[in-house]
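Protein in question filed below.

…
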Amino acid sequence: MSKATNLQDWVNNEMIRGRYIFTKEDVQALQLPISEQAMQNSLNRLTERGVIMSPWQNFYVAIPTEYKLKGVVPPTFYIDRLMKFLGRDYYVSLLTAAAMNGAAHQRPMVFQVTVNGKPIRSGVKNGTQLEFTLRQDLPLEFTQQLKTQAGYMTVSGPELTALDIVAEEKKIGGLSRAAEVLMELSETTSWDESKLPLLNHYSNSTLQRLGYLLELIEAQQQADDLFALIKKTGKPLRKTPLKQEVPVNEGMPVDKRWKIIENYQLEIDEI
């Protein structure tokens, strides 16, 4: 921690040294000659003046010069430190991760993160919509560390992203959107034997839907490799509706390979 006689000077000194993220606890440790209320008032004034922002209670980000005009720092800048502050394992996921894994046409309006532990309420934090998905068994061995301006962040790898896109299709705009994302992700996914442990983190129905969608978008080699991998798990494929919430009627066509009941019509835009 750099020495300073007031909070403004300390924040400036920290920024000069490339340190932009701090907590209320860090400020308390400075032992400035002011009361607790005066310290909080000072933090509030710096926030109002656009010197710092607080994406979470007692967690602060000094706003770098390049973001001064907007007054908002993107979550990529602070998400790793925020998750450490909250004591959570995490990975950046779904459409946010898809865009980082080569799905260039995906420009998510929200920043999506999968976490473990207790539920975290999603919401707008300093102009950015943060959306959290809760999951207790995070397959962190299938994530990657991507460099950010302030260090690194954990992002789902392409295969983990693809499975999440199907498993959480409601959070990305539906199965049709999932298929469109998979069209781009299929260029970077590889369903080789090293991905076998990943399949154990997902239900049979998710695996079947993913395989069905891969064939639908004509990623045949990907579908074949995934099918061979599922066979190695010993997971039985049983009749499963494509869309869980849509009623299944007798006589609906069933995909022979994936045992998917085609109870929903997909609308896929060409990319």
Summary: The mean pLDDT is 91. The first strand starts at residue 21 and ends at 23.
